[in-house]
Write a structure and sequence with these properties.
Order of helices and strands: HHHHHHHHHHHHHHHHHH
Radius of gyration: 19 Å
Number of helices: 18
Shape: globular
Oligomer: single chain
Largest sheet: none
Number of domains: 1
Number of strands: 0
C-alpha cells in the first residue's frame, strides 16, 4: 500500500498539468490564437522554405509553452492548412510538426509529461531546468528544421501556387491570458499543476458563460480523459513495479550520460516514453537531463514511442493525409541521432 501511495503522489501532477494545458489550449483556440498564428506564418514573405521554417518555429514555441500534446492537437491542422493554402509541400509540414513537437518539449518542465516525472525526485527549480535545457532545445529545434529541409528540399523550393492567406481574427480573451499565465507558472512555480488546471477550468467557464462557442463536451474530447486515465494507471503501475524491482533504476544510477541517453531512447521505443519515465524515475537518476534527451526526442524513431505521435496520426488521417510509418521511422531516426550527437555534449 505504501508503494502505491508513493507512486500515486509522484505521478498525478503531470496528468493534471496536461489536462489544464489542454483546456487552456482549447479556450485559446476558440479565440483564434492558433489560426491567427498560422495565418501570420503564411503571410511572411518568401517561398516554401521560409513558410516551413516559420511554421516550425511556431510549433516549437507552442510545444514548449502549452505541452507537446497540445501542440499536436492544435498546430497540426494549422500546419496542414497553411501548406495547402499556399500550395507548398504538405509532407514536410506534416512530418515536421510531429518531430518538432517531440524535440521542442525539452525546454520547460511542463512541456512534456516525462520531464515532470524525471525531475520530481530532484531539487531542480523550473527556471534552472529551462536554463540548463535552453541550448539543447535550440539545437533540437534546428536539427528538425535542417533534416526535413534536406529531405524535402526539392518540393519545398518549388514555386508556391497560391497567394497569401487572409488574416485570421484573434480575440484576446481568457484563453490567451491563461496561456501567458501558464508560461509564467511553469517557469516560476515548482509544482504548478493545480494552478494551471484552475486556469484552464476558469478560462473554459468564462468562454462558455460569454457564449463564445464551444462546449464542455468538445473540451473533454480535446482533453481526452479516457486516454489520460489509462496512461495514468499504467504510469502508477510501472511506478509501483519500479519501487520493488530496483534493477533498472540501479543500472541508470551508475550509467554515464551516453548510456543513459541511449537506454532512455530504446526504452521509450519499447514501452513508450511515459512508462519508461515512471520506471526509471522511481529512484534518483544520475543524469536526468541526458535521460530526458532520450525520452523526449527518442520517440521520433517510432510512432508508438509517445502519445503525441499517436495523436498526430489520428489528426492527419482525419485531414485526409496519408502517412507512411516507414517514412516516419526513417526520417525520425536521423532526427533523433543527429540531435543526440549535437545536444548531448552541451547538456553540461
Amino acid at each position: 500500500m505504501h508503494t502505491l501511495v508513493t507512486s500515486l503522489s509522484a505521478t498525478w501532477q503531470p496528468f493534471v498539468l496536461v489536462a489544464g494545458l489542454l483546456l487552456i489550449g482549447y479556450a485559446a483556440s476558440r479565440e483564434g490564437l492558433f489560426e491567427a498564428l498560422g495565418a501570420w506564418c503564411a503571410r511572411v514573405r518568401g517561398g516554401g522554405v521560409t513558410l516551413f521554417v516559420v511554421m516550425m518555429l511556431a510549433v516549437a514555441v507552442v510545444s514548449a509553452v502549452l505541452n507537446l500534446d497540445s501542440s499536436i492537437v492544435f498546430m497540426t491542422p494549422v500546419a496542414i492548412s497553411a501548406a495547402r493554402a499556399k500550395g507548398s509541400d504538405e509532407k514536410a509540414f506534416v512530418f515536421g510538426t510531429v518531430f518538432m513537437a517531440n524535440s521542442a518539449s525539452l525546454l520547460l518542465i511542463g512541456s512534456n509529461l516525462t520531464n515532470i516525472l524525471v525531475i520530481a525526485n530532484t531539487s531542480t527549480s523550473p527556471a534552472h531546468f529551462s536554463a540548463r535545457m535552453a541550448l539543447p532545445w535550440i539545437i533540437a529545434v534546428a536539427v528538425v528544421i535542417g533534416v526535413v529541409l534536406v529531405w524535402r528540399w526539392r518540393p519545398l523550393t518549388a514555386p508556391l501556387t497560391q497567394g497569401a492567406r487572409d488574416a485570421a481574427t484573434l480575440r484576446v480573451g481568457p484563453g490567451v491570458v491563461a496561456t501567458a499565465v501558464a508560461v509564467v507558472l511553469m517557469v516560476v512555480v515548482r509544482h504548478p499543476a493545480l494552478e494551471i488546471l484552475a486556469a484552464g477550468v476558469l478560462s473554459q467557464l468564462w468562454t462558455l458563460s460569454r457564449a463564445r462557442g464551444g462546449s464542455w463536451k468538445e473540451a473533454l474530447r480535446v482533453v481526452n480523459p479516457g486516454t489520460l486515465a489509462t496512461l495514468f494507471v499504467v504510469a502508477v503501475a510501472v511506478g509501483v513495479l519500479a519501487r520493488h524491482w530496483r534493477a533498472p533504476s540501479h543500472f541508470m544510477a551508475h550509467a554515464n550520460v551516453v548510456v543513459t541517453t541511449v537506454v532512455a531512447t530504446l526504452s521509450a521505443l519499447v514501452i513508450n516514453n511515459l512508462p519508461a519515465a515512471s520506471l526509471f524515475a522511481a529512484h534518483a537518476v544520475a543524469h536526468p537531463y541526458a535521460m530526458l534527451l532520450g525520452l523526449d526526442v527518442g520517440p521520433s524513431c517510432l510512432i508508438t514511442g509517445a502519445l503525441s505521435s499517436l495523436l498526430w496520426r489520428r489528426i492527419v488521417e482525419r485531414d485526409d493525409v496519408k502517412v507512411s510509418l516507414r517514412t516516419f521511422s526513417m526520417v525520425g531516426v536521423i532526427v533523433t541521432a543527429v540531435t543526440i550527437v549535437f545536444a548531448l555534449p552541451v547538456l553540461g
